[in-house]
Design brief:
The protein is α+β, with helices and mostly antiparallel strands. It has a domain of 111 residues: IHF-like DNA-binding proteins (HU Protein, Chain A), CATH 4.10.520. Helix content is 35%, strand content 17%. It is built from five helices and five strands, in the order ααβββββααα. A three-stranded antiparallel sheet has the order 1-2-5. Strand 3 and strand 4 form a beta hairpin. It starts with a helix and ends in a 34-residue tail after the last helix.
């Protein structure tokens, strides 16, 4: 599965728009990278832990010529799977799909993205009724609001 397929799958499973799923994935990748780069392990409960792995400088061999080569110190990443991920990988049954995001949280974007007809119908049903557009002459003039002038705060003259 590549990034595009992952974004499409997240969008389908959660009910988010493709742009929202892309933004969520980008944010997760950024936060994991920033956390690990800072030397902090990033733990996603039920999934696993990403850790920084530092490799020391060493001597290696060029496979074509066999001569010794200096290999610089580098940083890598290690992933340790979580208990739930291991259990899901080793189980024979189907894994649980995530619950889709409620339509109230994504009402406007779901309607704009022309997602599934069911989501659009739910959004339309929950949308408030539009006001009638009566002529401007029929409207009553708006009452002006007046605010009382506030007295300035007194300054304290006590000095220490």
């Amino acid at each position: 599965m590549n990034r595009t397929e992952l974004v499409d799958a997240v969008s389908t499973d959660t009910g988010l728009t493709r742009q929202q799923a892309e933004a969520a994935l980008a944010a997760i990748v950024y936060e994991v990278t920033a956390g690990v780069r800072g030397g902090n392990p990033v733990r996603i409960t039920g999934f696993g832990t990403f850790k920084l792995r530092e490799r020391k400088a060493r001597r290696g061999r060029n496979p074509q010529t066999g001569e010794p080569v200096k290999v610089k110190a580098s940083k890598g990443i290690g992933f340790t799977p979580g208990v739930k991920l291991k259990a899901d990988l080793n189980s024979r049954g189907a894994i649980a799909k995530p619950a889709p995001v409620s339509p109230s949280r994504t009402a406007a974007p779901a309607a704009r993205s022309a997602g599934t007809k069911a989501v659009a119908a739910k959004v339309a049903a929950k949308a408030p009724a539009k006001r009638s557009t009566a002529s401007p002459a029929a409207k009553a003039p708006a009452a002006k609001k007046t605010t009382a002038a506030k007295a300035p705060a007194k300054r304290s003259s006590a000095r220490a």
